[in-house]
Specification:
The complex is a heterodimer. Chain A is mostly helical. In chain A, 69% of the residues lie in helices and 0% in strands. By secondary structure, chain B is an all-alpha fold. Classes of the chains: A mainly alpha, B mainly alpha.
Chain lengths: 48, 297
């Protein structure tokens, strides 16, 4: 892939990633992540 | 003249700093509790269990499974956005420089015991295992294997991930008597996996990263496009293959320097006798120099 193609891929992925994060916040997905992360995950530590 | 002496030392220092940074809640280790602050809503770029007492952010693979396996949301925009952002900026530089479990494997591999070179016949097909784990344990199982309430377990975290056992399981079980009462088959199974991976790390370089890590598998797709790139100057290259001999991830450096398997450790750059290998975020200048040279010739 030539330099222009790589640059286009980088810009596209960057824009899509920012849009995805914003869409996730609008759907309150960050709360889902937060709620999971602030409790001890018994399955993750081998007690599940 | 490039100072190559500092390449390995700089990487080690960055790895240590990042391990401390991602697990900076020291009070958690003292009290046997996990951090519950707002930064837990953010994904860190590395495989770092959010049940580690010191963890300040969320593991992206754990978060991916919790969103996929939750009742409401199916497409994980938020977590995928973070993974794509980290991937397009860093690629597998994250594996080589930022990951705490990568650091542990690196340190274990420094212990002077005989090293094993895994035959290509086994090594090459086994490299695909991490992609199978990604698809099966991280994506499909949380999506389809749900309980009666429509919620599923984080299957990769539960059955495979050694990082959760090492960073979360061992310190929390050690510090909390109530958790010790819950020890059983699953804990023993996960401890066995952890011990096997740690012992293998003595003899084989980064076995978890090569064969099992689903996050490394995801970031691999970004290696060719990420802002951080490795570059081989073919005009300077004398074909001595010292770079390939130095590469512990068995990358064919002269053929595909930005391979899926490259973790950007820069050992090839260090080994090159003619400074034909460069790496960094700003390789545009060297590309332009080559283009200008071609135009004038």
């Amino acid at each position: 892939m030539d330099r222009k193609g790589i640059l286009a891929a980088r810009v596209s992925v960057f824009i899509v990633s920012i849009c995805f994060i914003a869409m996730g916040i609008m759907r309150n997905e960050h709360f889902v992540v937060f709620k999971k992360a602030v409790k001890i995950c018994l399955e993750c530590i081998g007690l599940g | 003249m490039k100072n190559k002496e500092n390449i390995s030392r700089t990487r080690l220092i960055i790895q240590i700093i990042m391990a401390v940074f991602f697990n900076g809640y020291v009070i958690g280790f003292a009290k046997g509790k996990i951090f519950t602050g707002a930064t837990k809503a953010l994904c860190v770029p590395v495989l770092n269990c959010y049940s580690c007492p010191g963890a300040l952010g969320s593991c992206p693979i754990g978060a991916l499974q919790s969103v996929l396996g939750g009742r409401k949301h199916r497409f994980p925009f938020y977590v995928l956005g973070f993974i794509m952002l980290f991937g397009i900026v860093f690629g597998r530089f994250i594996c080589g420089f930022l990951c705490p479990f990568g650091l542990i494997q690196d340190l274990l591999h420094k212990i002077p015991v005989p090293k094993i070179k895994v035959p290509n016949l086994i090594d090459k097909p086994l490299r695909f295992l991490k992609y199978i784990i990604l698809i099966l344990f991280v994506i499909l199982m949380p999506l389809f294997f749900t309980n009666d309430f429509g919620i599923s377990s984080p299957y990769f975290c539960k059955w495979i991930c050694p990082v959760g056992t090492l960073e979360g399981g061992i310190p929390l079980v050690f510090l909390n008597e109530s958790l010790r009462n819950g020890l059983g088959f699953l804990f023993n199974f996960k401890i066995t996996i952890l011990i096997v991976i740690l012992v293998l790390s003595l003899f084989i370089y980064r076995p978890f990263c090569k064969y099992l890590c689903p996050l490394g598998a995801l970031y691999a797709f970004f290696n060719k496009f990420s802002l951080y790139q490795m570059e081989l100057d073919k005009e300077k290259c004398i074909g001595c293959k010292k770079c390939e001999h130095a590469c512990k991830m068995n990358v064919k450096v002269t053929k595909n320097i930005n391979s899926f398997e490259c973790i950007r450790c820069r050992e090839c750059e260090k080994a090159c006798p003619v400074n034909a290998i460069n790496s960094g975020f700003n390789l545009k200048k060297s590309e332009e120099k080559c283009e200008n040279k071609e135009k004038t010739v």
